[in-house]
Amino acid sequence: MNLTERSYQTEFLDEELIPFEDIKQNLKELDFINKWLGGHSITIDGFRQLVENKKEVSVCEIGCGGGDNLVAIQKWCRSENIKLSITGIDLKKECIDFAKSRQSSFSHVNWIVCDYKKVSFERKPDIIFSSLFCHHFTFEELVFQFTWMKENSTIGFFINDLQRSTIAYYSIKILTQLFSKSYLVKNDAPLSVARGFTKEELSQICSQAGISNATIQWKWAFRYLVSYKHE
Q: Where is each Methyltransferase domain found (predicted)?
């Protein structure tokens, strides 16, 4: 696999008409991967950097999938006595249906089945974020996405996504072939890495979106946390 340039090969999960049980298995395994390979801790770190000392905050995740990142944020907020209002947006109804099965994990939550670009907020959320979502898009689409998150948040936004790395690619390929029961995960996990980013590419996207004060941090395991706060 040549990882010099980003791959634009379509992931299986981006296809239509995937059986719900297959999506459900995929989401369960992604939750496991996020938990044990540090994805959730990176999401909490991005959220913590923006929320600072506030005791009441609203958050929106675009491409929320099964809601596992939002569950992690909710648990953290409860431990910090922060009142949290949640909005989860995903294009796939099956993902939102799975997220709704976790309804008891949330205090105040609103699920939206829609392309995030078509969502119009009555009241803008304080923080918007995405996790393992950006790598599904082209450079031009990401410039729009970063701009949209900036314009629709009152505090700021952050993204948690993959570093394009040979070590990461072959590591996740071997692990998923050995342990995954999901054909979606086996195909899409290494492909997601091939569709991931370098720090320079993320910096270029921020620049094209007119965002000059974003921070880009490398995180274990092979992730980048991009964070922007309104001045």
A: 54-173
